[in-house]
Amino acid sequence: LINKKDNNDYKTVRVGNIEIGGEQLIMMAGPCAIESKEQMLASAKAVKEAGGHILRGGAFKPRTSPYSFQGLGEEGLEILKEVGEHYQLPVISEVMDPRDVEMISRYVDVIQIGTRNMQNFSLLKEAGRANKPILLKRGMAATIEDWLMAAEYIAAEGNQDIILCERGIRTFENYTRNTLDIAAVPIIKSLTYLPIIVDPSHGTGRRELVAPMAKAAIAAGVDGLMVEIHPSPCDALSDGPQSLELPEFADLMVETQELHKMI
Ligand code: PEP
Ligand code: MN
What we know:
Blueprint: E1 13-15, E2 18-20, E3 26-30, H1 37-50, E4 54-56, H2 74-87, E5 91-94, H3 101-105, E6 110-113, H4 121-128, E7 134-137, H5 144-156, E8 162-166, H6 184-191, E9 196-198, H7 200-204, H8 207-219, E10 224-228, H9 246-262
Parallel strand pairs: 3-4, 3-10, 4-5, 5-6, 6-7, 7-8, 8-9, 9-10
Antiparallel strand pairs: 1-2
Helix pairs in contact: 1-2, 1-9, 4-5, 8-9
The protein binds phosphoenolpyruvate and manganese (II) ion (MN).
């Protein structure tokens, strides 16, 4: 079971030479969707130069409308892998279909399971048989207990390298895209030894709220952050309004690392 045995029971998840759940605050950043090699090169350069740790980019996008951009698929993963290697950044991307787990494992260092698939039990089981760390996002209508049991599905298949990600839940409030549940951070820390990160981009849906909520997450004891960035957010094929401009991301890196040192 992934339950915490005592107060000092913490697990770190290794990704290359990065440790998630250790001393460092881990920053995962990149565009919502992989759109082109140029877009990924510009984003990865910004992540690397600012001191970010992991490059993100979606190749299979779970869009609300079937007519919205669905992602570049395997071609996108090829770009992600190549750009990650070029900048020596480990990469993360979302899997939506159990049949794609093995294929995606050939391209990424961390496999992401998105909010809409948190209780896709066949996907969770397949992820549990994968040879890669899994980032498990909280379902947008999942309780903490639902979320931990979803993680248990992965662990039960033998894969203990699980990183939890709070990305906001649905509430009556619609000023923000989701309501970021910051309390989930200390709660998760008290219940399980698994590391937890926060995604303030999907958690708010608004660029100007990303930095304040990232800082709130750090104050709450988070192990890392995942943020969306884009070389030109107004031209982004998905989630432009919540994507940071590259210089804004550089500022966020400085501010978050400084705050983390103080805590
Ligand atoms: C994402 O990170 O690309 C994503 C789709 O997030 P979520 O599953 O949290 O909506
Ligand atoms: Mn997105």
